[in-house]
Structure formats: structure tokens, C-alpha cells
Amino acid sequence: MARYTGPVCRLCRREQQKLYLKGDKCYTDKCPVAKRNYAPGQHGQGRRGNMSNYGLQLREKQKVRRYYGISESKMRKYYAMADKMQGVTGENLLKILEMRLDNVVQRLGLAESRAEARQLVTHGHFVVNGRKVNIPSYLTSVGDVIEVKEKSKASPKFKELVEKHQGTTKPWVQFNSEKLQGNIISEPSREDIDLPIEEHLIVELYSK
After folding, report:
1. What's the whole-model pTM score?
2. What is the secondary structure of 102-160 as a DSSP string?
3. Domain ranges within the chain, ordered by starting residue
4. What is the pLDDT of residues 27-69, one digit of tens each?
5. Fewest CB atoms within 10 Å of the CB: 6, 56, 60, 124?
6. Domain spanning 53-99+194-208 has what CATH number?
7. Helix H or strand E segment including 127
């Protein structure tokens, strides 16, 4: 399935909640969800009837896919991994998604959005444990060190991002602003994942 390349604000409006896909714009009055809190399209303002259980499950799954910017095939792959792990399957799924390299880069404040993080990773601006990694879906592990590549550290963009997002990283990652380096110190807990989602609905959908 091809990646969605249209206006990402339509995705937020479709879910009728902010998915924070545009970085800083999502926190301003310019956010389309704040101005037009209804689904896109000519019938977007029409009445929405009661949604079936399947509809609720599907919407929750779509929210997560859009939030992390992944395809359906990737989502199914991660669900299969989560289902084999010990613990609660839904929470395991969100932990796997959080450990993707593009998400970690965004969590460290080195990108304003996951889309930008994916682009930066693809362009080879980061090294993991000293090795260049340009695959956004690369799954990091506890103890990994993610660092901006030496040649990229002089870029004013990274300095600007660090100043803007100083102190906004999550408890499961540590960030050294001088070295432009982050450490994964633990797996994220469910409380660390600021996603208003009912992951059990996704499990119900995929377990049918």
C-alpha cells in the first residue's frame, strides 16, 4: 500500500482529534481541527449515526496508523510481534511503535514531527551505537545510543530544534543537548505514551 501523501490535516479532521502530524502548527490557532472540527469532504458536516463495534475498532486502528505514519502491513506485523510477547498485547503494540527510530528521534526533540523524523533518518543524519542507520522503521532497544551524525551536527536546524524542544523528552529517554545524543534508558510505559487511544479495540479487531 502506498504511503499517504495528501494534506495530513485531513487525517486529523477525519479522526476529529489532533494527531499532532504538523509539529508546532498543531499547537496554534491555525490548526484545522480547531477551526473545522468535522470530517473532510462535502458530507463532512452531515450527521454521524451510531458507530458499530467494528467501526469503533477500525477507527482506533486508523488513529494509531496515522499517528505513527505506518502502513497496514507494518501494523499487522507489529501486532503479530506484540501478540507473541509477554504482557498485555495492546500495550506491547504501542511500545513497539514507540521504539521505532523515527519516533525516538521525534521524542528526543530532533524533529518537529514524525514525518520530518522519517525524512531526516532516511537522509542519513543519525547513527545508532556508532553505526549509520537510515531506516525509519528500525526498532531500537534499551541501551541504544542515538546520535546526530558528526557531519550533520553543524546544521543550524538541529541547534534550533534543541533550543525549541529543550526539556520536552520522555522519561524513558535521556538527551544530551551538547552532544546531540540520546540514550534509551528503559522501555516506555503506557503512561509515557501520550496517545488518547483504546488499544484493546485494536486487539479485538486483529484477533478476529
Report:
1. 0.80
2. HHHHHHTTSSSSHHHHHHHHHTT-EEETTEE---TTPBP-TT-EEEE-GGGTT-HHHHH
3. 1-49, 53-99+194-208, 100-184
4. 566 665 555 665 655 545 555 557 889 989 998 999 999 889 9
5. 6
6. 1.10.1050.10
7. strand 126-128
